[in-house]
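Task 17 of the worksheet. Students: predict the tertiary structure of the chain below and write it out as structure tokens. Keep your answer in the requested format; marks are given for formatting as well as content.
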Amino acid sequence: MCTIYAIGSNGSGQLGIGHKQDVSVPKQVLFNIKSPEVDIHVRAGGNHTLLLSSGNLSWSGDPTSGACGLISDSAHQDARFHPVRLSAEDLPLTEAPIVLCAATWEASIVVQKDKDGLSTRVSSFGIGNKGELGQGELLFRSSKAQIIKDFPPKGLEVVDLAASVSHVVVVLSNGSVYGWGNGRKGQLGEPEEVVYTPREITGLTFSVNRAICGREFTYLMGKSQVVLGSDKWNVISGAPSSVPRWADMGASWGSIFVLQDNGKLVSWGRDDHGQLAPPGLPLLSKIAIGSEHALGLTIDGNVLAWGWGEHGNCGPGTENGDVKGKWNVIASSQYLPPGSKISSIGAGCATSWICISE
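Model answer:
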């Protein structure tokens, strides 16, 4: 059994806590369905949140863009989490488990298993004025999930999915990478342009197994690494030559974070609000990276937050809205009852999430 708590920006009800005010002290997330039983994966657009758990996807926030799927009239004002309905049927689409999800500012992308159990069914919904839906130039708005046709190529399946404000990147089982959306800064490779349907990122010299996206860049990792796109905030020129033995990674709009398997966090890029790892950061077991802030779960069970925290997403102790050069402890396992632990964390657009498991 999982209990989820959230803090941060909530003007559209994207925290799912029953109201639409920002909070800086963790509040329990509410569901109009059964709460998740296992760890959650959080993906967030500008004003909507997706929670993925055991193949089931739920949403909260502003559904008017269509990025929350097909919804009932009552769900518009109900600041709780609801099951994402991908089709016109009355029940959530449960026959095809969702294995991956991502969100741009006003769109959502999901990957489901096909009848053979392979991750080949890629769908999108919401608004994609810059190609974020991957459906071609003519389809740029839909509340109904639309399958992206002829993708992935036959014989391949999706192994990773990432998105930022206006572009989407997919890693396939042969190590190739495709992307769509706004590629005008080179974040989708050459040529630098808006890409309306999945296009392979060519010229890579290594097989990719992980991708993350910032606002105007894409970071690809395998046996080597590369940053594509804008070098604003020195995300390209400031990158280390390699980050060995990585365990996880994430990107804010302007920074890159790589957690090594020894618990050390390597980061580079934008730091004007204290987004990068502060000095003396304890060893971490998990990270979650939001739009301009970061969370880390320490080995001993504390959730640390730092960076831009104007909406309460880094806790109540900020200076001019920032937690800079230090961190706040926003939750701690030492205060939980016996048998409970903080099992996962998440971060979105000025939102932070804590999952407590029994």
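Marker's comment: The mean pLDDT is 95. The CA atoms of residues 179 and 212 lie 12 Å apart.
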